[in-house]
Write a structure and sequence with these properties.
heterodimer, A: mainly alpha, two-stranded antiparallel ribbon, B: alpha+beta, Rossmann fold, 10 helices, disordered N terminus
Chain lengths: ~550, ~425
């Protein structure tokens, strides 16, 4: 083992044991009696009545959102990579729209649009229907429903699918599709029979990513579920813990249940998708011809436009209108519009200013640390099957731990000696580090998989050391994928709500916590202003990073 | 003959014909007629004056452990490659040729044996030495070209020099020179994605020769290219090798490529080297039935030795009793054998310049015009055999012919050998 490998392993084991095993074990050990009582409460006690409904709701939301995201995400990825409906730079920005607008901001945006009484969009529809003589006092749409929950969750799952699928498509030699075309299959048949089967592993990975993110997504059900009276498991666990007295036992039991479920899905994926059966990129650069969609081009462009509208434009517009009002009303009066809410969250309110600074710097540091570690791991061990498996298992582990559990486990483990970190920025840093590790690892291994083995080997026989090969060849070739991962981690950290709710307080405020508090307290215009601010900051950073990678990409492929 | 192929160890001789015997066959003591022994000397002793072998591989073993059990990729393989020598590893896929190449490169760690490059021990199981590729003073050309897409053509080629510690300007000048050598001097600013396959492989070639380490490994470098480009690059490759004088180890499954390029060919089958020799030795005097079968085409008949007469054997086959050259197999009367002979070594004529040639009576079933040669399918008894002649005339089906087969062109192998 080289010193470099040893360093990587050391770091990985520190993250795995220090940030996963230690807090979980501590939580289990200190709460053991509660866990036993919790099991009884869930199976036959006070909670046994609510539990089946919660589980069913979760199943519906997660399945619905994942299917929705798979369809939209793969279609958009295919259109952008393979058809002449490509939107160029905008096309690559578009599926990232939901990353640029953090889900918490997006869902608040949709809430202010489609609230059955005060929704801005509902107000517009009421006005339209009024023209044809239909007078409505509520609706016609209600975001606080199961449908609203599924669609909004799905909207914000699309980017995971898109990024994974489009990376796989970029990797797939277009010759296999051209071979299908000349074998007499039309574009649609080729897509269904050749393209998607060829990237099946990526689709499976995308589905799994959707499920995992759906299970641990907290912001959407927290904002919509309360109004809809629909409990999903993440909110259920959160409430078990935030109510007084906190019911830590049942919460831990449920969390471990989720842990086991996701582990089983991962094993299933490993069994179903055999490595080596998907086409890896070789060292040859290739150019493919794009599928001509003809009139369908506008249909695809329309779909893309609709998606962009739904994830970014409409919610942001809603947020803007509300943020400019002194108080939230669907009837916008231009005369009363004011910048006061922005002044308030950006300069006047100490809590929001501190939250902004904290979240941004945490996002930056966490993204850099995670991508460096995961990028180095994935690239360094890309040809070492066993090491890769162990690293994958360890870095994938956090994705199987709902954020709620990380929050609780961290509170229990890090508010007692020897590591008294509760209420500091450090505890947030560690929590975000472990929570975004899986995203970082997935992005990194997707990027590493896209590099043919011979590229690294050619560098080794060209007298470059391990480390130099990593720095000069593997990292630059994998850079677009790694940057995509960086973006994901940053946006996740900035928009994180769940663990933030547990671990953040007045000493170490972060945006997620403050947004949730303001929403609960009904300070809607301020919530809207703050959500808009972080969306803008995320958007400009993402845009900048994207611009840099696209240019680097163009220089090599063009 | 240049550097003699290393023989497999004596204790293995019982399991199959070793290469020790094969290498010996190039020596003057060979029983082949002078007519073709004289042919093989002149062009094939190019590197004989250089003494120290560039690469020495001894008893190399590599076992891949897979879920379905162990797969022996290399089974105590030994070979030496001389300075300036072009050695081709030839064999079907899965025979271990690429594994051997990757072991020499340091991309694969063998299980036992040792490898020396330029007299320096780079791998030894006993002494626990395993030098990584960057410390081995060699270069490699890959099947997929393996150009780095984010670096320009010039940067790709200059990369090995920069790693060896050369200054930027100096490395770029040398890279430019190497690119000029492969005819890509005007493409230095391009990126690999903008080049055709042939151009990409030329860049890879320039990258492999730029640091002039004296050893270049080739892993089926031409198999991704179309035939015309492949033929051109093959000739250019030989020109480059002559000019720069590097040793080459070249892996291919294409026998024409092997015959065209090699000073010596090592024919491999499932983890072992069957025979090492000059292209002519491999083609004309294959030491095993496997080699005879794999390289070139052959008429092959099962038979039985009916009598041994000094240098010749009488073998009873379905096409008649053949007088064959006796080899070192020590065959006795009654032994089950295979008789092999090449289509182009047979002639269709009734003339009788030499009394001891085999004469087989047959009927032409079909004649195929193949441009430079004409191929005849001749039925002799219940069997058919192929005869080819360069510039021959087409013969009507049904015509009675006599196939003339010189005794020294026959090869006899014991039947149980494979």
């Amino acid at each position: 083992m080289t010193p470099f490998s040893a360093t990587l392993w050391l770091l990985l084991f520190f993250v795995a044991f220090g940030l996963m095993v230690y807090p979980l074990a501590t939580a289990l050990i200190y709460e053991f009696d509660n866990v036993v009582a919790g099991w009884t409460a869930l199976t036959s006690g006070s909670l046994s009545g609510a539990l089946p409904t919660v589980l069913l709701n979760t199943l519906i939301v997660v399945t619905g959102a994942t299917v929705f995201a798979l369809v939209i995400g793969s279609a958009l990825a295919w259109a952008n990579e393979r058809s002449d409906a490509s939107l160029g730079f905008a096309g690559h920005l578009l599926p990232l729209a939901a990353l640029i607008v953090p889900p918490i901001a997006g869902v608040i945006g949709w809430a202010v649009l489609l609230d059955p009484r005060a929704g801005l969009l509902n107000h517009f529809f009421q006005w339209l229907l009024g023209l044809v003589g239909l007078e409505l006092r509520e609706g016609p749409l209600d975001i606080y429903t199961m449908g609203g929950l599924v669609i909004v969750t799905g909207l914000y799952t699309v980017p995971y699918v898109y990024l994974v699928v489009s990376a796989a498509l970029q990797r797939l030699d277009p010759a296999v599709e051209e071979a299908s075309r000349v074998s007499g299959a039309g574009p649609l048949r080729t897509m269904v029979r050749v393209t998607f089967p060829a990237i099946k592993p990526a689709l499976a990975a995308a589905a799994l990513l959707g499920i995992i993110s759906g299970i641990s997504l907290f912001s959407v059900p927290a904002v919509l579920g309360a109004g809809a009276r629909i409990d999903v498991i993440s909110v259920f666990i959160f409430r078990l813990l935030s109510e007084y007295p906190a019911q830590t036992g049942p919460a831990i039991v449920l969390a471990i249940g989720l842990l086991v479920l996701v582990q089983m899905l991962l094993i299933g994926q490993h069994l179903l998708v055999k490595r080596g059966r998907n086409a890896a990129v070789s060292g040859r650069g290739f150019r493919g011809t794009r599928v001509r969609l003809g009139p369908f081009r506008y249909l695809v462009l329309g779909l893309a436009g609709l998606y962009l509208l739904a994830t970014a434009v409409l919610p942001l517009l809603g947020l803007l209108l509300v943020s400019l009002q002194p108080f939230w009303t669907p009837a916008v009066d231009l005369a009363t519009l004011t910048w006061q809410n922005f002044r308030f969250v950006l300069f006047e309110n100490r809590e929001t200013v501190a939250a902004l600074i904290n979240s941004m710097s945490l996002g930056f540091v966490v993204a850099c640390v995670n991508m460096l570690l995961c990028g180095a791991l994935a690239l360094h061990f890309s040809r070492n099957g066993r090491a890769r498996k162990i690293a994958d298992a360890l870095t994938g582990l956090p994705a199987t731990i709902p954020h709620t559990v990380i929050g609780v486990a961290f509170i229990l483990a890090f508010s007692r000696e020897p590591l008294r970190l509760y209420g500091t920025t450090s505890i947030l840093f560690l929590a975000y580090l472990v929570m975004t590790l899986a995203y970082a690892a997935r992005a990194a291994s997707a990027a590493a998989d896209s590099i043919g083995a011979e590229l690294g080997e050619a560098s080794r026989v060209s007298k470059a050391s391990d480390l130099k090969t990593l720095r000069r060849i593997l990292l630059p070739v994998a850079a677009p994928g790694l940057v995509a991962g960086w973006i994901m981690v940053f946006v996740h950290t900035v928009g994180e709500v769940t663990a933030s709710a547990f671990l953040s307080g007045s000493n170490n405020p972060v945006i997620g916590r403050v947004l949730l508090d303001f929403w609960t307290f009904g300070r809607f215009p301020q919530v809207a202003a703050l959500a808009l601010v972080i969306s803008l900051i995320s958007a400009s950073l993402v845009g900048l990073m994207l611009f840099i990678t696209r240019r680097a990409h163009k220089a090599t492929i063009s | 003959m240049l550097v003699a192929g290393m023989g497999r160890n004596g204790e293995n001789d019982g399991t199959g014909p070793g290469i020790a015997g094969a290498a010996g066959r190039g020596a003057p003591g060979q029983t082949a007629p002078g007519q073709h022994a004289s042919h093989q000397d002149a062009p094939e002793t190019r590197a004989s004056d250089r003494a120290e072998p560039r690469v020495v591989v001894r008893d190399l073993t590599k076992v891949f452990r897979t879920r379905r059990g162990d797969h022996v990729a290399l089974d105590r393989v030994s070979i030496e490659i001389g300075a300036g020598e072009f050695v081709v590893l030839l064999g079907p896929s899965g025979c271990g040729k690429t594994t051997l190449l990757r072991c020499i490169a340091g991309l694969e760690e063998p299980d036992s044996g040792e490898i020396l490059i330029n007299g320096k021990l780079v791998y030894s199981a006993r002494e626990k030495v395993f030098l990584p590729p960057e410390k081995r003073q060699l270069n490699m050309v890959f099947q997929s070209y393996a150009l780095w897409p984010h670096l320009s053509v010039l940067e790709n080629v200059a990369y090995p020099l920069r790693n060896a510690g050369q200054a930027g300007a100096q490395a770029q000048a040398a890279a430019k020179e190497a690119l000029d050598l492969v005819g890509l001097g005007s493409f230095i600013a391009a990126y690999p994605g903008q080049l055709s396959g042939g151009q990409q492989q030329r860049v890879a070639l320039a990258r492999a020769i730029v640091s002039n380490d004296g050893l270049v490994l080739f892993d089926e470098p031409l198999s991704n290219l179309d035939a015309k480009v492949r033929d051109r690059l093959r000739i250019e490759l030989l020109g480059l090798q002559e000019r720069i004088g590097f040793s080459a180890v070249y892996v291919t499954h294409d026998q024409m490529e092997a015959l065209a390029l090699a000073d010596r060919i090592a024919v491999m089958s499932v983890g072992r080297i069957e025979q090492v020799g000059t292209p002519r030795q491999i083609y004309d005097t294959p030491s095993t039935r496997y080699v005879a079968d794999f390289v070139g085409s052959a008429n092959e008949f099962a038979g039985r030795v009916t009598s041994v007469m000094g240098e010749t054997l009488a073998v009873e086959t379905p096409v008649g009793t053949l007088t064959c050259q006796a080899r070192e197999h020590g065959l006795a009367t009654g032994a089950d054998v295979h008789v092999l002979f090449r289509p182009e070594h047979c002639r269709l004529d009734g003339g009788s310049e030499r009394g001891d040639d085999n004469l087989l009576a047959g009927v032409v079933e079909r004649s195929l015009y193949l441009g430079p040669i004409v191929q005849y399918v001749v039925r002799c008894g219940d069997e058919t055999l192929i005869v080819s002649a360069s510039g021959g005339a087409l013969i009507d089906p049904g015509t009675r012919v006599t196939v003339r087969l010189p005794v020294e062109r026959t090869r006899v192998f014991p039947r149980e050998a494979r």
